[in-house]
Design brief:
alpha/beta; 8-stranded mixed beta sheet; about 30% helix; disordered N terminus; Metallo-beta-lactamase, Chain A
Length: about 350
């Protein structure tokens, strides 16, 4: 595995890194039709049809959506607001316990934000995301591992899926406890360098290591492919990896960021759709049959973990969707395209 060290990614250096990683996105965009012959409503119908299997994602096709931009710097004195993950749902949510979901996949998050641990004690782990704060990381990640009987010292890589505070908030505690740097994509290092101190999530990470598009991590029989997608943020990381259910292999995708909360940006919406189009092809090649999110409301983690706890011997695994899992990419392609056509056609009116 090849990592490049990066320190104090600010100013021109950060912008240069973002430009250097932009080429995969540019090539993706050329592959995706604009569907200009269809109305926003017609395109949204396609996305909503796919969202029948993914109800937590249906809001992406809401053509009454007012776009907001969570990527603008705010001072610590400003009114707190969401970091942009788009968990959806109300304030009352069931507590989600730390859970072994597959032989080599563990949930160590809470009801609003997920951290996922991939790997085994023997071969080591990759930790995806740091939750909202140092206290949350201590309680749910390190505390959750303790409840599951897992050793945090076996974590070999600490990856933050994207530069929003609800996913990097606990990075200071974790880097100190684990002795590992934060790893993000170059575009999101550039993004985090502009955000300053968030009123809820604290300071963004400013140094660490760069994840490159297509990079692989191999932990024994667990192979993790890391893809940089210009979607929720300029460089959201969406890994695909092998999981095992009592030794039976499956392929999972962790879509690294979901919400369309980067403002009324038609180009970005089309890039989001292009990223989905590209990842669909890769997912088909890798036989993906599992979709998971870093927000439990998006993928129904809570309901699936309840079904998993009640599962009888030989029953299907509730997280395994078989061929239906690929349908998630229709949601991630057609809903942003519907929103882009809405803006292009002049149907979108901002709240200003």
């Amino acid at each position: 595995m090849r990592f490049l060290a990066v320190t104090k990614l600010i100013g021109a250096i950060a912008l240069g890194l973002a430009t250097a990683c932009a080429s995969p996105v540019d090539s993706e965009t050329e592959d995706v039709t604009s569907l200009a012959s269809e109305t926003p409503n017609e395109i949204a119908v396609r996305g909503l049809a796919a969202a029948e299997n993914f109800p937590g994602l249906a809001s992406l096709c809401d053509l009454d959506m007012v776009f907001r931009d969570v990527n603008v710097p705010r001072s610590a004195s400003e009114q707190p607001r969401s970091g942009g993950g788009g968990g959806g749902g109300g304030s009352q949510r069931p507590v989600l316990p730390p859970t072994q979901v597959f032989d080599n996949l563990y949930f160590v998050g809470n009801s609003r934000v997920a951290s996922w641990l991939v790997g085994t004690e023997e071969d080591g782990y990759v930790l995806f995301d740091a939750l909202t704060s140092d206290a949350a990381a201590e309680q749910y990640i390190i505390g959750g591992m303790a409840e599951l009987g897992l050793d945090p010292s076996k974590i070999k890589h600490f990856i933050v899926s994207h530069g929003h505070g609800d996913h990097y908030g606990g990075h200071r505690y974790l880097t100190e406890q684990l002795g590992l740097p934060v790893s993000m994509s170059a575009p999101d290092w550039a993004l985090s360098s502009t955000l300053g101190v968030h009123p809820r999530f604290g300071p963004a990470p400013v140094e660490g290591e760069i994840i490159e598009d297509g990079q692989q991590i191999e932990l024994g029989e667990t192979l993790i492919n890391l893809y940089v997608t210009s979607a929720h943020t300029p460089g959201t990381i969406s890994p695909m990896f092998t999981v095992y259910d009592n030794g039976e292999p499956h392929a999972a995708i962790l879509w690294g960021g979901t919400g369309l909360n980067f403002g009324a940006d038609e180009k970005r919406l089309r890039e989001y759709a292009a990223s989905s189009n590209r990842l669909r092809k890769l997912a088909i090649d890798q036989g993906v049959d599992i979709f998971i999110s870093n927000h439990p409301a998006r993928d129904g983690t809570g309901e699936k973990m309840e079904a998993l706890a009640a599962r009888k011997g030989g029953a299907p695994h509730p997280f395994v969707m078989d061929e239906a899992a690929i349908g998630v990419f229709d949601v991630f392609e057609f809903c942003p395209l519907a929103q882009a056509e809405r803006i292009s056609s002049g149907q979108y009116q901002s709240a200003d």
